[in-house]
Specification:
8-stranded antiparallel beta sheet; alpha+beta; 8 strands
């Protein structure tokens, strides 16, 4: 069952209660009109790891319109996800436009992101940080 704008706003502001490993969150849910909003801010974990979030939500035409998720340890960017399409990279067609930028060359080294979509991605991203040993 799809989330309503109000349900997702509640989820965003209650994220540290739903995921005890989240130390704190600076996420804000900014309503632009009755069916659109922007979510931005950071989610902080142990080990100086944090997730920087930017989502543009449109509940009239689906859920997410666009997103960017960046994971850092202190000031070092570990990886990021975005939805910028790269039709010229055959390795990414299976999940186009969803992909992950990974080392050794974060800007140019991209891999498919089968777990991301234009639906709520925050639960997956938090679990990825917690269970892949990022800290």
């Amino acid at each position: 069952m799809p989330l309503t704008l109000e349900e997702y706003e509640e989820f965003v502001y209650d994220i540290s209660n739903q995921f005890p490993a989240v130390r704190y969150s600076t996420l804000v849910f900014i309503r632009l009109d009755p069916l659109t909003a922007v979510v931005r801010g950071e989610v902080f974990f142990e080990g100086d790891i944090y997730l920087r979030v930017r989502e543009v939500l449109d509940f009239d035409s689906g859920f997410l319109q666009t997103y960017s998720y960046e994971v850092y340890r202190d000031d070092e960017q570990l990886y990021w996800y975005d939805d910028w399409s790269h039709p010229d990279i055959p390795e990414l067609t299976s999940t186009d436009p969803h992909h992950k930028h990974v080392p050794p060359d974060l800007k140019h080294h991209r891999v498919p992101a089968p777990h991301l979509s234009f639906c709520p991605n925050l639960p997956f991203l938090i679990k990825e940080i917690l269970y892949t040993g990022q800290f």
